[in-house]
Amino acid sequence: MSHEDATHGPAPLGSVDPEPLHRAVDTLAEALHQYVQTAVGVRAEFGAAEADEDPRVLALENRVGQLNAAVFDSLHDSLGMHPDLTSSVWEAQDGPEPEHAHVAPEGAVAAEVFYLGFVVADPAPGASMTLDGVIELLDEAGGDVAQRLFDGGYEVAEWATSRGAAVEFGDDPDDDLDTDDTDDTDTGGGAPGAGPQEDR
C-alpha cells in the first residue's frame, strides 16, 4: 500500500470495520497460548538452554513473529498507522538511581551507532557453555565498555547486545541515532548501569 493514499493522509478515516483487526489479534493470541502450552511441556522435560533451542519452541516463536507482522500489516493497511506492539518495556524499579546511570544532556552533539560483531559456532558436545550463554558474556562486556566510554567523557545514550541481527536504536525517525530495520532479541541497553532491556 502506498503511503500517498487516503489511508495515510491527514484526514480522519471515519467508519472502519474493526473485525479483520480483531481476527488478526485473535489468531496471534491463539498462537501465544499454544506457545505457552508447548514451552511448559518442553521445560518439564529439558533444561532451560535445551528448551530454548527445542525445534517445537523455535517453530512457534517463528509463527508468533509472523503473526505479529500480520497484526502490524492489518493495522497499517486499514488505518495507515505504524504500531509498535512488539517492544518489551520494563518499569523502572523503585529506589535510588543506579550510581553510574547517566542521560545524555540536552543539546548534546549528534550521536552515531557503532557495532562490534562476532560469529560464534556451537561448542563441542559436552562443553559447559551453550550459544545462549554467549549473550550473557557479551552483555557483561558491553556494560564494561559502556562504562569505560562514559568515564572517557563520551555520552553513551544506549547500548545493547543482540543475537542474529543488529540492534534497532531509537523509535523516532528524526532521532540522531542511525537505525537498522531489524527485529531480533537483544539485551542490555540504556546508559551505563541502567540495567537490561529486551526488544523482541
Layout of strands and helices, then pairs:
Elements: H1 19-45, H2 48-52, H3 55-79, E1 87-88, H4 132-151, E2 161-162, E3 186-187, E4 198-199
Antiparallel strand pairs: 1-4, 2-3
Helix pairs in contact: 1-3
Region (Disordered): 163-200
Biased composition (Acidic residues): 169-186
Write up this protein:
The protein has helices at 19-45, 48-52, 55-79, 132-151; strands at 87-88, 161-162, 186-187, 198-199. The chain is flat. 8% of the residues are buried. A two-stranded antiparallel sheet has the order 1-4. The protein has a two-stranded antiparallel ribbon with strand order 2-3. It has 4 helices and 4 strands; from the N terminus they run H-H-H-E-H-E-E-E. It is mainly alpha-helical and 200 residues long. Residues 163-200 are annotated as: Disordered. Residues 169-186 have a biased composition (Acidic residues).
Descriptive labels:
mainly alpha; 4 helices; 2 domains; two-stranded antiparallel sheet
Counting DSSP H or I runs of 4 or more residues, the number of helices is 4
Largest beta sheet: strand ordering = 1-4
Q: Give the overall silhouette.
A: flat
Radius of gyration over all CA atoms, rounded: 20 Å
Number of strands: 4
Q: What is the distance, rounded to the nearest whole angstrom, between the alpha carbons of the first and last residues?
A: 25 Å
- Uncertain segments are 172-185, 193-200
Order of helices and strands: HHHEHEEE
Secondary-structure content class: mainly alpha
Q: What percent strand?
A: under 5%
Task: Give a short overview.
This protein is mainly α and 200 residues long.
